[in-house]
Design a protein that fits this description.
7 helices; mainly alpha; single chain
Length: 119
């Protein structure tokens, strides 16, 4: 908005029109919405894989009870992730795949997600 030299509602209108290209303001709103959905999907996929890899290694050095308390205190909005992490700690679910996958593979694969190809 600083690039337009405008302030207030005019700046917002100009920025949305710029983002939308030939589709104008509505296209700009669509671009922002799509960007939010992509960021949300990448965050969920990457965060869950990262936390699973971490909690597969931690039971070796800390008691299960402490880890379960720690997982319960995590501020995650998706309760399913907490349940899967608790299963990882108690039963070792997901640890075989977490050990086989290097964290560099996870970040490299984030660019090859199916929804990314639709852009």
């Amino acid at each position: 908005m600083a690039a337009t030299g405008l302030t207030g509602a005019a700046a917002i209108t100009a920025a949305l029109a710029f983002l939308g290209g030939p589709a104008g303001m509505l296209g700009g709103i669509a671009v922002l919405s799509l960007t939010g959905l992509i960021a949300d999907a990448l965050t969920k996929v990457g965060l869950e894989d990262l936390l699973t890899a971490i909690y597969c290694q931690r039971p070796k050095s800390r008691p299960h009870g402490k880890l379960l308390e720690e997982i319960e205190k995590l501020s995650l909005f998706d309760g399913d992730i907490k349940e899967r992490l608790q299963m990882t700690v108690t039963e070792g679910c997901g640890c075989a795949t977490a050990r086989a996958v290097d964290m560099n593979d996870i970040t490299r694969d984030a660019g090859n997600l199916p929804f990314r190809k639709q852009l």
